[in-house]
Amino acid sequence: MKEINLKGKRALVTGGSTGIGAEICRQLAGCGADVVINYNDSRAAAEALAKEIGARYGVKAIGIKANVADSGQVREMFLQVDRELGGIDILVNNAGCETVQHILDLEEDAWDKVLNVNLKGPFLCSQQAALQMENGGGGIIINISSIHDTVPRKGLVHYCSAKAGLKMLSKCLSLELADKGIRVVSVAPGAIETNMNRAEIEKFGKDKFEQWIPQGRLGHVSDVAHTVVFLASDLAGYINGADIYVDGAYMNHTVQYDPRPERKKK
Ligand code: NAP
Fold it and tell me: Which residues form a coiled coil (predicted)?
């Protein structure tokens, strides 16, 4: 069996300084890849992680600030990647955000932000990455979706719509970019305990949550990161356009709990 070896590969992980993204950065670096840690707000976390990764794995690790939903900032980030690393081989579109709101209270701003970060961001980053990958002879784009690309949930109409769009973005890109040696896949986590959902898990009770998951536990960030390094490697060279669920079979057994806040006064 071949080992996963990403030596000489250059990776960029959006939203790479926290949660699932940070573990993806660590695992990619652990397999030998140089890593760019994109952040928007979490500068200190990105810089600390870059230092940790560089010291621990002896790879190049740098933090670059960019709002993935802003085309100018995304273009600038990829120019910097080209300057610092001479191109890119692996893009992980991991940055994401959500709010929980009743559909009848959902403001246009919240809809726009969630769609822009979770869907427009991956489009903008994938386009810039693919332009560099095309010149570099290929690469891989991995979009971190969610079981909510398929499973609806009350209070998450914007998030579910964005992730469903992201799943289709992966499929369309795989079709358009295969002839350039670029593979595109999505990885769809179930319930992974991170800053994004810790409060929600606490609200309903961790025990109860774990009983809803057929494998009997929440996911770890490493469950997602291990899948990403496998997909980024040559071992996954014929996987293209797939949506891979990393959820302990949660999506086959989701309970329709209601995370929505009380309705605002009419
Ligand atoms: P998290 O720790 O809150 O990570 C979200 C990351 O997105 C942060 O590092 C944040 O960076 C970044 N981000 C947000 N807006 C951004 C923007 N405009 N530009 C650049 N970066 C931005 O939560 P997480 O759970 O690790 O989430 C990572 C991904 O996994 C998301 O796409 C999420 O939808 C997906 N996911 C998570 C779960 C779960 O159970 N946790 C389940 C399914 C899918 P800054 O702090 O620097 O802004």
Answer: none
For residues 109 and 255, give the distance between their C-alpha atoms in angstroms, rounded to a whole number.
29
Distance 190 CA to ligand 1 centre (A): 14
pLDDT in tens, 2-37: 889 999 999 999 999 999 999 999 999 999 999 999
In a domain, 264, yes or no: no
Residue 139's SS3 state is strand
* Res. 266 pLDDT band, cuts 50 70 90: low
Answer yes or no: is 206 within a domain. Answer: no
- The answer to whether residue 4 is domain-embedded is no
The answer on pLDDT for 242 being more than 80 is: yes
| pLDDT tens-digit readout, 92-107 | 999 999 999 999 999 9
Ligand 1, CB cutoff 6 Å, lining residues: 14-15, 17-21, 38-42, 67-69, 94-97, 117, 144, 146, 189, 191-192, 194-197
Q: Which sequence positions are flagged as catalytic?
A: 159
CATH of the domain at 138: 3.40.50.720
Give the Å distance between the CA of 265 and the centre of ligand 1: 31
**Strand duo 90-93 + 61-65: pairing:** unpaired
Residue 263 inside a domain? The answer is no
Helix 43-57 and helix 19-30: axis angle, to 10°? 20
Residue 178 sits at φ, ψ, to 5 deg, of: -60, -40
What total number of domains does the chain contain? 1
**Domain housing 231:** 10-193+221-248
